[in-house]
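A sample copied in:

***
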Amino acid sequence: MASGLFAAGWPVLLPWEVIARPLPDPLRRTVGAVISGRLKAAAMPAPDSAAGTA
């Protein structure tokens, strides 16, 4: 997922900010599930890309 964000033009620091946020307390899912959900939520067009471009 992270590789896809980088390939789509996301700057390196932006996905790290999404990943590095503190985990919820109490943790009701695995760490991997939390990170995956965050990346999926962030998987939108890159900040400076044209919308609708594949």
Q: What stands out?
A: The chain has three helices and no strands.
